[in-house]
Amino acid sequence: RRRRAARPGAGRSSLRAPRPIPLFPRGGDCPPAEGAAGLKVRDVQDVIAKFIELQKLEDEIIDAARVLEEGPLRLAASLESLEEARAAHESVSSGLRDAKISLKTLELDMMKLKELREGNRARTTKATGERSYKAVLTELDSIKKLIAENEEGTLELLEKSEALKAELPVAEEGLKDAEAAHEELSLSVEEDMARAKAVADSRQAAVDAILATIDPAAAERFTASAKAHNGKAMAAVTDGTCQVCRIRIPPQLYNELQSHSKLMTCPSCARIMHFVPPAPKEEAPQKKPAKRAKKPVASSARA
Fold it and tell me: Quick one: CA torsion of 83, 89, 94, 99, rounded to 10 degrees?
């Protein structure tokens, strides 16, 4: 007896994971819902017109939300610049203060060294032996080196102080400019955010009012599409191309879309499509034919 070849997949479980149901089936009608099947062509056209108006309001709400989101970021950037200006001013100011303190310390040290030098000079005249005389001279040499180092350090501090004194007005001016800019920006951001908040509230009220006048099933479709696409529920289609995802719409769907007989979604981005006629092409001005130069008339035969 011939053995039957084992079928591929034999012995495996026939149970399969259920396929996820998409929000909108791509490339066709919007999902059927209660009350949607009764929409007439005129009703569909009215719904699409209201959808387009809703999308304009949603776009304004998105712009207002962007202003409200960017406002704190603009303030944070301005505050960071202000802190940098404050740090630069404090660095120059503290450096100048430290230089003055160091100069004062060197000045006191110099006075003590000079007193020691004068005392040792007096001791040279009173030295009784060669050993004590050399010890006084050695101490004098050490004092002279310390005085020279002190003078060198004083010169360096004086140069540093002069440089910091020149930088201080620039740092002060920069701090004033940063403070003024931050204050001006704070007022501007506050006004922009207040205006954006008012726009968002008024546009949302208009959205709710328009949704209340639309068939509930159609209104739910727009709301779901807007939620799924960050407020961009609609996709204009011109010349057979979706203006959002830039794909070509199949010809049959494109023809149905132009009839405005039902709500349809893009096969790619799943947004609710609406037909936008292409802009009329400007005709290039016709060039007038150049006039031909007249040929010179042949002169009569010479007599």
Answer: 150
Alpha carbons within 13 angstroms on the beta-carbon side of residue 199 total 19
Cα 29 to Cα 260: distance, rounded to the nearest angstrom: 12
Predicted confidence at residue 41, as pLDDT, reads 66
Report the interhelical angle of 216-228 vs 130-211 (nearest 10°): 160
pLDDT band per the 50, 70, 90 thresholds, residue 89: very high
The dihedral through the CA atoms of 74, 76, 81, 82 has a sign that is: positive
Confidence check: pLDDT of 21 > 70:
no
What is the band of 292 on the pLDDT scale with cuts at 50, 70, 90?
A: low
Q: How far is CA 268 from the centre of its chain?
A: 29
Residue 234 has which token pair? 């609609």
Stretch among 13-22, 98-107, 158-167, 253-262 having the lowest mean pLDDT: 13-22
Residue bearing the bigger pLDDT, 107 or 9 = 107
In sequence order, which residues have a C-beta less than 8 Å from that of residue 61 and are 6 or more positions away?
Answer: 199, 200, 203, 204, 207, 231
Beta-bridged to residue 66, according to DSSP, are none
- Other Cβ atoms within 10 Å of 20 Cβ, number: 6
Higher pLDDT, 69 or 280: 69
DSSP secondary structure string for all residues of 240-302:
TEETTT-PBPPHHHHHHHHHT-S-EE-TTT-PEEEE-PPPPPPPPPPPPPPPPPPPPPPPPPP
Q: Report the length, in residues, of the chain.
A: 303
Give the closest residue to 61 by CA, choosing from 243, 197, 224.
Answer: 197
Bridge partners (DSSP) listed for residue 241: 238, 248
Which of 184, 213, 205, 190 lies closest to 50 in space, CA to CA?
Answer: 213
